[in-house]
Each structure stands twice: as C-alpha cells, then as structure tokens.
C-alpha cells in the first residue's frame, strides 16, 4: 500500500488524493516530530507564565477576555471540541472527511500549532485504521476555519461521538478506537483549538474538484469533437496558428485536443455540401475558447491550492524566536493572526462553479443541435429510429437541460455572502465550505451533462452512413458500446444507457479510450 510521509513543509495534491480516495497510509517524518516537540516546549513555557496567552490560557472567540486558571485548562480544551461539534444535516462523504483530517494533520506537523507528537500520531492512526468521523453538512462559515466539521473529527480523537468503521458501519468512536488499539487523546493547552482552526475541509474539496475537472475538461474536448463530426462541421477553426494569435494556454490545449481526436475523420469539412453554411454555430466553433477559459481558471485555482497545501493555517500560531509586543523577547512566541479566513480558497471554489456552469451550458447547446432536424444537417429528429413512433433522445436532452439550469443556480457565488457570528467578534466570514459543497454538486452534474452529449454524439456519428469517423472517435464509440452505452435503435428504457454513459465519463474511461489513438491529451 502507498505510504504518504508528512513533514513540516506541507503536502501535495497527489498526497491528498492518495489518502482521501486511495486509502494510503500515513507516517510522520522525524523532522515533523522534532518540530512538534519544539513547538510544544514553547507552549508549555508560555502556559507556565502568569500572563494570559490567547488559546493557551484564555477563552475563545468573544470569550477570549477570560483568563483560565491552570486546573481548568484541560477542561477548556475538551469543552471547545464538544461545544463546537454542533454540525447538522446529512453526513458528508468519506473522502471529504479523510481529506479534512489529513490536511489538519499537515498543519499540525508544521511545528506552528503547539500540538504534542502523540496527538498528531493519533490523527495518523485513526486515518490508517480506516475510521472516519461522522461530519455533517452544515456548521462551517469558512472563517475561524471549518470549525464544526473539524470539531467532529477532534471528538473522535477523544473517543467521543460517532464514527464510521472500515466496514462502513457507524458506531461509537470509543468502541472503534478500542478495537484498533488506539488510546483516546487527553487534550492539553491549545490543542483543542489547534485541531479546529483551519480551512482544511474547503481545501480538501478544492483539491478533489481540480482532479475531477481536469478529467472532465478533457472529456468535454472529446465530446465536442464528436459533435463537430456528427454535425459535419469544419476542423479548420482548430488550426494551431489561429489559437497562437490569441495565446491563452487553455484555449490552445483545448483546440489541440479536439484536433487530435478528429485526425483522419471523413466527416469533417462537409459544411459546404447540401446545405451550405459559412460558419459553424458558436457552440461548435467556440468550443476551444470556452473550454480553454475554464482550463485557465483551473490553473489559477491550482496555484491557490498549492499555496494552501504549503501553508500552516491556525490561530494562534507558534513562532520560534523574535520579539512580540505582548510577550517580549525570547525563544518563541504565540501570536494571533487572521490566516484562518477562507477567502482565498472560497473565491476560486466559486470561480470553478462558474466555469463548470458554462462548460455544461455549451455542451447542452451542441446536444440540442444534434437533435433538431432543422439544424443537424440531415440527422433524423431527436436521433430517433422512426421519428413520430419513436421519441429518440428528446427527454434525455430535457434531463441535460435541467442539469444545466441547476448548474447556473450553483454558480451564484457563496463567497459574496457574509453573516456575522460570535457576538460580532467574527463579523466577516468567507462561506468557503458552502462554496466547496456546491462545487461538488456542480462537478457531479457536469459529469452527467457531458455523458448526455457523449450519448447523443456517438449515436449521431453512427447514423452518418457512408463516411468514416476519425480513428479516435471510433475507439471511443467501441469502448462506450462495450461499457453498456448502447447505440441507435428503437425507443427503449433510456435511464440505464445514460447511467452507463455517466459511469464511462466519471471513471475516466472516455479519456482513456480516446488516448489509445491520440496519445496523452492536454
């Protein structure tokens, strides 16, 4: 099994995916353990002083003005976890919780949180045992971190609350820890707060969305090429020299992908045949421009994610050396900061939802064109076997249109909203968790939209008799049919076919099939 070693300098997107989706094991590096020990010594030294230190010897949020005496500090850390584990609604997905916990562990191991090595090791042990805390949909405003979701995870470390075992059964967390030989943690100064105060949930969902969208943008290039073929369009608009004079990297990549798929097609270039047209419709001709803009949005979001993956997000943070106005000079200090604010992540999560909505919209327009006998250049109405007796793909396009409409609603930015909390102490929040949750839905629906275009375009290409599709197109059609995505014929129960097309796209089989001919797509 793959092992991810967590050090002090952050993790990579591939590390997150390996742990969240691949079940990779986690180890702490010797450097991380040393950093944990050093930071803890700073916290212990400050805790022994009479001066109040936020998060160490004070209350939290709007209650930070109270100085907490030493005998109550362990109770304070337990209480913050218990009281903040206040999520509601349905459970979030296992992969989201694993990413959330792993990314919190990443920050803990940075040496800036003051958490003891044994707490960090317990976090790794819980993940390695396949124990997944029950985390609920609602409870994060995306500022002061994903508080409620992280609190439910910390509760599991304490042996409290509920969690899902490796068998998928939800049970009391204490029982699961005992079965796997894991001792519940007894939290000390600052540790409860350090386990809660991060943007780890929204970051984990961003990383996974980027991975999924990378595949979906390649998939959309393939289905756009198939639609162009089926509509007897021209591939001249994909010429590299046309895209070089508007040098957006994503646009050039999308055009190159479409051109690679169409290489060797006998269906392209017939736009001047029986029903001459000067140009193809925008949904066909401008496919690289729209998909390219989305790709460049992905590139920007990936840059933000990489910075966050290298960050240590906590409040307060432990810093070594230097001088603090509050604590004077010394070997280390604890400082309050605003790095927990989720705005950098929230903005790109919302930006990606906008890009996903537009990609879905243009794919639906191409599908509709394939089904309209007045615009499909000789294809039967709705690609039906016997139009009038058969309805063909009429309602498949309805379903696709409903999904597109939903994507437009999901494109409304969550990060444009803010609602004050904690007695106006936390008076501006990012809503990044909400942005991440709606992006997951958007990505899910975009997959279905591309699957419907695939279903329609492969059927339409097969209905073009006498002309041979490109080798890559034929490879896609052959693989799709083998995967249960059936071809032309009389009306039948369509939902299973669409489900097969969805799985074909979602699992990356569409891209793999095309790449057997084209080589790696960009």
TrEMBL record:
Biological or metabolic pathway of the protein: Amino-acid degradation; L-histidine degradation into L-glutamate; N-formimidoyl-L-glutamate from L-histidine: step 1/3
| InterPro entries with a match to the protein in the record | Aromatic_Lyase, Fumarase/histidase_N, HutH, L-Aspartase-like, Phe/His_NH3-lyase_AS
**What family is this protein classified in?**
Belongs to the PAL/histidase family.
UniProt crosslink position (5-imidazolinone (Ala-Gly)): 143-145
Which PANTHER family does the entry link to?
A: HISTIDINE AMMONIA-LYASE
Question: Which positions does the record annotate as the modified residue 2,3-didehydroalanine (Ser)?
Answer: 144
Localization per Swiss-Prot or TrEMBL: Cytoplasm
Keywords from UniProt, A to Z, are: Cytoplasm, Histidine metabolism, Lyase
Show the stretches that span the lipid bilayer. none
Q: Which residues form a coiled coil?
A: none
Protein's recorded name: Histidine ammonia-lyase
Write out the PTM section of this UniProt entry. Contains an active site 4-methylidene-imidazol-5-one (MIO), which is formed autocatalytically by cyclization and dehydration of residues Cys-Ser-Gly.
Domain of life of the organism in this record?
A: Bacteria
Classification via Gene3D superfamilies: Fumarase/aspartase (Central domain), Fumarase/aspartase (N-terminal domain)
Listed under catalytic activity are:
L-histidine = trans-urocanate + NH4(+)
Query: Which species does this protein come from?
Result: Streptomyces pyxinicus
GO function term, MF aspect, one = histidine ammonia-lyase activity
- EC annotation? 4.3.1.3
Name a Pfam family for this protein. Lyase_aromatic
């Amino acid at each position: 099994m793959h092992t991810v070693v967590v050090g002090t300098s952050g993790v990579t997107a591939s590390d997150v995916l390996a742990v969240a989706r691949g079940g990779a094991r986690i180890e702490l590096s010797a450097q991380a353990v040393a950093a944990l020990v050093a930071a803890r010594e700073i916290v212990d030294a400050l805790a022994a002083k009479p001066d109040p230190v936020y998060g160490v010897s004070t209350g939290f949020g709007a209650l930070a003005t109270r100085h907490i005496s030493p005998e109550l500090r362990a109770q304070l850390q337990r209480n913050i976890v218990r009281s903040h584990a206040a999520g509601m609604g349905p459970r979030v997905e296992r992969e989201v919780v694993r990413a959330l916990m792993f990314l919190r562990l990443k920050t803990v191991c940075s040496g800036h949180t003051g958490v003891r090595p044994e707490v960090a090791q317990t976090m790794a042990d819980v993940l390695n045992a396949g124990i997944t805390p029950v985390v609920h949909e609602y409870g994060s405003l995306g500022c002061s971190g994903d508080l409620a979701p992280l609190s439910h995870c910390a509760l599991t470390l304490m042996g409290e609350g509920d969690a899902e075992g490796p068998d998928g059964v939800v049970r009391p967390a204490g029982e699961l820890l005992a079965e796997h030989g894991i001792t519940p943690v007894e939290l000390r100064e600052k540790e409860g707060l350090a386990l809660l105060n991060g943007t780890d949930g929204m970051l984990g969902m961003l990383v996974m969305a980027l991975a999924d969208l990378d595949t979906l943008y390649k998939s959309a290039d393939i289905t756009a090429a198939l639609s162009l073929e089926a509509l007897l369009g021209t591939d001249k608009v994909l010429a590299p020299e046309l895209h070089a004079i508007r040098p957006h990297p994503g646009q050039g990549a999308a055009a190159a992908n479409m051109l690679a798929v169409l290489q060797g097609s006998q269906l392209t270039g017939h736009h001047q045949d029986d029903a001459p047209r000067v140009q193809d419709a925008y949904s066909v001709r401008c496919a690289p421009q729209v998909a390219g803009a989305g790709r460049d949005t992905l590139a920007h979001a990936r840059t933000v994610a990489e910075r966050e993956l290298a960050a240590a997000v906590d409040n307060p943070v432990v810093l070594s050396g230097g001088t603090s106005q509050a604590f004077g000079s010394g070997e280390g200090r604890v400082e309050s900061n605003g790095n927990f604010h989720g705005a950098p992540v929230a903005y790109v999560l919302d930006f990606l939802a906008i890009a996903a909505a537009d990609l879905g919209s243009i794919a639906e327009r191409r599908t509709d064109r394939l089904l309209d006998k007045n615009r499909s250049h000789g294809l039967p109405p709705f690609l039906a076997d016997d139009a009038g007796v058969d309805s063909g793909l009429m309602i498949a396009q309805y379903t696709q249109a409903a999904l597109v409409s939903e994507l437009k609603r999901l494109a409304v930015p969550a990060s444009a909203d803010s609602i004050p909390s904690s007695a106006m102490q936390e008076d501006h929040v990012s809503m990044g968790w909400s942005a991440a949750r709606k992006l997951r839905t958007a990505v899910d629906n975009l997959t279905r939209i591309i699957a419907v275009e695939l279903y329609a375009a492969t059927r339409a290409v097969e209905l073009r008799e006498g002309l041979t599709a490109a080798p890559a197109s034929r490879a896609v059609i052959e693989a799709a049919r083998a995967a249960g995505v059936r071809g032309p014929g009389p009306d039948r129960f369509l939902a299973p076919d669409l489900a097969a097309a969805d799985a074909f796209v979602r699992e990356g089989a569409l891209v793999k099939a095309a790449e057997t001919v084209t080589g790696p797509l960009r």
